Amino acid sequence: MNFLPKIETHVDFVGQSLAEKIYWIVITSSAAGFALSCLLILPPWPYLRRHPIKWLKHQPAGGGNYKKKKN
Fold it and tell me: 3, 9, 26, 65: which has the highest count of C-beta atoms within 10 A?
């Protein structure tokens, strides 16, 4: 178990700096895209409400002539 000191532990500061820059670019662009999509989709904009759905009224399962039985 004494092989760990033999492993080369060279630290690439330039590569780490580049990886951190790429990380922050990806995180920032993802957050900006999420915020933009929320701004465009979540509010009830008029262009999204042009053709509202007309729902049917509730009908009992018996077809309409359904009467409750008295116990």
Answer: 26
